[in-house]
Design goal:
This protein has about 230 residues and is an all-alpha fold. Helix content is about 80%, strand content about 0%. The two termini are about 20 Å apart.
């Protein structure tokens, strides 16, 4: 039980911290909470959380299969790394042009739950973010390829996602005022952080073969997760 709680805690902490950097997802949570109330904000967060835990669970099931097919995995890495570069450049360009935060968020025409589902489905960073963390935890033997551990891990992720959104839902007016005052600086910070992440990931792709990067995961016989019933 202690091991499962540890796995739950890792999922919750990573998800909570990952929900804090400013982006469309958490800014929309703030916008909905201000316009429609805290309850609507929580419903929105729930929709986002449902999609995220499904994506993570499917990713965990498919990691072993992908890791054994290096060409496919390499192709997916190229796509996700390219997306990181695009998002980073968009933030830097917005900062350079001093573009202000737009209030035209997609929150008016849909129910808050489905708004959360839609935005989460179109978030390009879910898979590379959780694939990276899951691989790290598997390599460190914190997480093992067992269905019960995967289930506790995604439960922690769901809890952390809700807690992260609650920061923006409950602190709505304050965050909106801070965003308005410091939007240009925030764009620079987000752009630089994402560009740094892109450089690190690109360096790994160029200088470290895919077979080497995932050899630890494969050597721990992750195949056994496919022999068990999910």
């Amino acid at each position: 039980m202690k091991k499962l709680f540890q796995i739950f805690s890792w999922g919750m902490i990573i998800s909570f911290l990952g929900s804090l950097p400013l982006g469309v997802m958490n800014l929309t949570a703030t916008h909905i909470a201000i316009q429609q109330g805290i309850r609507a904000g929580i419903i929105y967060a729930s929709g986002s959380m449902v999609v995220e835990i499904i994506v993570v669970r499917v990713t965990l099931v498919g990691m072993g299969w992908l890791a054994r097919r290096h060409k496919i995995f390499f192709f997916l890495e190229l796509i996700t790394t390219g997306l990181l570069f695009v998002v980073a450049m968009a933030s830097i360009i917005a900062a350079y042009k001093m573009r202000e935060f737009s209030n035209s968020l997609p929150t008016e025409s849909l129910h808050p739950f489905f708004t959360g589902v839609l935005l989460s489905l179109t978030n390009p960073l879910h898979i590379p973010f959780w694939m990276g963390w899951s691989t790290l935890l598997l390599n460190k033997q914190i997480l093992e390829p067992q269905p019960i551990q995967y289930n506790w891990f995604v439960s922690g992720i769901g809890t952390g996602t809700i807690l992260g959104f609650m920061v923006f839902i409950l602190g709505g007016p304050y965050f909106i005022s801070q965003i308005t005052q410091h939007q240009n600086l925030l764009n620079w910070v987000i752009g630089i952080v994402l560009m740094g992440t892109f450089v690190i990931q690109a360096k790994k792709i160029i200088f470290v073969p895919t077979t080497v990067r995932y050899s630890k995961m494969l050597s721990r016989n992750i195949n056994k997760s496919y022999k068990e019933k999910y």
